[in-house]
Every structure is written in C-alpha cells, then in structure tokens.
Amino acid sequence: MPQHIAVIMDGNGRWAKKRGMPRTAGHKVGAETFRSIATYCKDIGVKYFTVYAFSTENWKRPAEEVDTLMNLFRRYLKEAIETMAEKNVAVQVIGDLSVLAEDIQKLIADCNREAQNLENPAIATLCINYGGRDEIKNAVRALARKVQAGELLPEDITESMISEHLYTAAMPDPDLIIRPSGEIRTSNFLLWQSAYAEYYFTDILWPDFKPEHLEQAIEAYNKRQRRYGGIG
Ligand code: IPE
Ligand code: IPE
Ligand code: MG
Q1: Is 53 in the pocket of ligand 2 (CB under 6 A)?
Q2: Residue 232 banded pLDDT, cuts 50, 70, 90
C-alpha cells in the first residue's frame, strides 16, 4: 500500500459542461468526491492523502468560480473541525495561506488545533493557493535569509534542508500521484517532492472518480518497479 497518495483533482468544469450545468456545480460534486476518497484512503490504511484543490494560477478564473471554491473550502473545513475526532483524520492545509480571507485562515488554524488532539491520525492535506514553484521560491528565500544572517554557508545547503523548508516538511514524499481528467501534466504540483513519485493518469473526470478507480491506480502502482536510479 502506498504510504502517501496525492491527487490533482481535475475535470470538475468539463464534468459540469457535459451535463449542461455551470462549472460551479462540478466543483460541488468534486468536493463530495474528495470527502469520499479521503475516507476511503483512511479505511484502506493510506497514511497520507494530499489533494491539489486550488493552485496559485487558479486566481485567473472568473470571480464567481473562485468564490464558489472558497465557499466550498469554508464548508469542508467546518465539517472537518466537527468530525475530525470521530474519524481520526487530521485535515491540514498547505500553500500560501496569507492571501486567503481571514475567516478561512481562522478555520485553518482551528483545524490545526483540533488535529493536535488526535493520536496517530491519517493525514489529509488540502493544497490551497499552492504552487510548486512558489513553494520552492519561499524555501530559497528562507535559506538565503539564513545565509545573509551568517547562520549558514551556501555550500552547507543540503537537499534535506530544502525539503525541510517546504510546506510538506513534516510529510514523506508522495509515492503515487493520480491525475484524472485526461491531462498529462503536473500543473505546478509538488515539483520537488515528486522526484521519484509514480504517476497515474486516467480519463475519468474527478467528480466521477470512485473508490474502484483508486483501487485501479493502486493496482497499477503495485506493478511498477521503483528503481530510484539503481538497477532494481
Ligand atoms: C479542477 O477542475 C478544480 C480546480 C482546478 C479548482 P477544473 O475546474 O480545472 O475542471 P476542468 O479542467 O475545467 O474540467
Ligand atoms: C490543476 O488543475 C490545479 C488543481 C487541480 C487545483 P488546472 O485545471 O488548474 O490545470 P491546467 O490549467 O489544466 O494545467
Ligand atoms: Mg482543470
């Protein structure tokens, strides 16, 4: 079983369009898919489940669509705070959260506080206003400040130090990254962390994604031979 599964939740808009519905309707169903797949992951023993929910580039979308997504984050964060103890799933959010509405930032803080009471929980991570390049830029800035302060020599910067300055510092790298909806690209997701991840692409649109599709992805993952540059 992969320890860490990450998903680029894509295809909500096309799912809605196919049905003659507004794109926002696709996001609502996509959010329900997140809930059911996160629960399923926990049930089958996946310790870390990470989803790309809103990228640093998604602000380009119409305000109404962005508002719908932000309202969905509000709703699901509230639900997470209420049900976390019962489910033993710690929900956390990563990304540049500083530009999110204050009430959303407060919900995220409440979530983190609630998560601290859990014992050995499964970890569900929502990436909101997340960009892989933005994340690496922030890590570089933090390390540069240490060099500037005379606390660190440039030649002493290690790969682990860079990992430790990413939003995912406390998490293992993803083993399996799933992208539904037929697009074959990373779209700026976990650029550093995905160095040796196994990718799985499927044409299924995210709102149609069911536990059986996750099972298919895990089955494909289990047939792969991970060599990490060696000869296996
Ligand atoms: C993914 O679905 C959700 C977000 C990026 C927020 P899309 O909204 O990108 O759906 P498509 O790709 O347009 O179908
Ligand atoms: C990636 O999907 C971002 C999220 C799923 C949050 P996009 O729909 O934004 O990616 P592109 O634009 O097709 O590359
Ligand atoms: Mg998309």
Answers
A1: yes
A2: confident
